[in-house]
Amino acid sequence: MPAVSPDPAAPPVPPAPPAADAADAAGVWPANLAALRRHHRAFAAELEAAIEDQEPVSLAWEASRAGPRVATRSTPCGPLALGSRFDPALEAARALAPIDDGEAAAVVLLGLGLGLTAPAALRRMAGQGRVIGFEPDLPQLAAVLAGVDATAWLADPGLHLFGPAASNAELTAALEPHGVELTQGTRLITHPVARRLHGEALGAFSEKIAGLTSFCRTSLATAMVHAAKTQRNLARNLAVYAAGATTQPLRGAASGRVAVCVAAGPSLAKNAHLLADAAVRERVVVIAAQTALRPLLDRGVAPDFVTALDHSAACARFYEDLPPLPGVTLVAEAACHPVILESFPGPVRLTGSDAAEAMAGEASAPAREPIPPGSTVAHLSVSLARFLGCSAVVLVGQDLGFTDGLYYCPGTAVHRVWDAELSPWNTLEMMEWQRIARMRGTLERRPAAGGGACLTDGQMTAYLQQFERDFAAMRRAGVRVVDATEGGLAKEHAEVAPLRETLAELVDPAATPVRLPVPDAEGLDAGRLRTLDRHVEALRAEVAELRRVCGAGAALLERMAACVEDPAALARENAKLAPLQARVRGELSAAHDLVGRVNVTGAVRRRRADGRIKRARLAGVAKLKAELDRDRDNLDWLGQACDATLATLGVAADAVRRGRGS
Asked: What share of the chain is helix, strand, coil (3-state, %, to 5)?
């Protein structure tokens, strides 16, 4: 009989499960695996690979005294039950007892056991938190899923599953959008069997979660602290944003070329001079963080682009005493400090910004795609390389650590600032170490790119999390990432090679020189400036009205709080809220969106309060009181954000008029 070819349109056949009851394996395992493939693709692929490559785990199932089945596996030390033989469901519930429903919004399960703790944790979160499951023993989990129907909880959108192969980049990509929950409170629940058999793996994953939580906490704190400052900088840069050169002409302008992204880490002094070779320089795109501009110029290297996003006026020091740079374009985030735009001695392009678009409205230049800024100028440099369409990104001076006990590359603007403090008793090396020692509470040694270890701190490791997430996405898109820093931390998803060898491999001396568009010097568009002036004045009027509505709403909530136990009076006051809410959703929606960009703290407080109320399962008067407290707090923060936005729009109006020369 001839062989029958498989139907290519047929769904893939799931791998055979470990030994289990025939009745269970016939339906439970394929259903569980299908649920994993739909909702946890990366984890499903890792699980299937483990089934093929590792020895299967055989489980013996029996009924517990309370009824639910419990499994036992054989180990060199004898049989080991995966749950209580008395009542495994009660055991799972008790494991979650340390969770504070009012505060903890994320639960990390270190070991999934019989699959009873995960659904219990999801019920505790009540749709207002994250459950992160880590399973170090995938063959054991496969054996469990061959005997337990887990399809319902595997489909819960609040669940995230990871195996031993999960990288920092994968964790960051999956969990960064839920940073508010992670920073509100994260509890680790360890399965006893997983601790006994795989303690080292649990410790490694716990460290990854701690690093990710630190990264999310840093990002959230930065957003909360700098929200008002960001809006103020946007206002001061609004004329340039709306009526100046955009980054859109750069989209794909260096397709297939090599980008060299230069940061100012201490290793930059080792190899930056290699970029001065004209045969190399003309055939690569050089993107420098603003801190690296002067060290490059001192070595005879003029970059194509300089990136900036800092909010500090101290950034002016990076551009002091520079010659005119007509061929070097500054690519800056719209919320950077305006002194950067005023100080840079060359053409300027501002990246797309949703917040700036909301402030500029129809006056903004059309068709501007955003370039993800990241946490630092180095992240912005890498994002710009991707926006340009470069096929390879080479990192130089991106230490993310204190190579050779140094913080900065010699010759940076910071060293010039320190000149006045130097003496035989206070050397440059001493000041470098003092700068490092300020972060002594978070200093640690991590694997170095060339082997061994490198000293770093919590801030740098938070930046590393974001880089590794981006590098993983770049590799999936076919963009090659080479870490040619020749120092600093090891970075997942980046090759490590010396810069000289990297340039020799990637740069074709016969290729045509790179040609990039440079903005003209015509200045700001007068027509867009006039439109912007009218738009800003209209926004100021709307925000002032929104502020009045906030005051009226707060007064209503106070009266409602005073009559929570009088349903008739409560209903009368509540009816008066509807017209105010309709105005905010309708004619004042643009103003509300703009104010919301300042009200980051208020939004976080509102989200946390929502989670606490739902997870605590309040009802009746207790729930109503909690909701009224939440809404009063929300309106208070919104009103403060209105005041800040009105001040910001006043700054914007002044900046636009200066741009118009009036």
From this structure: 55, 10, 35
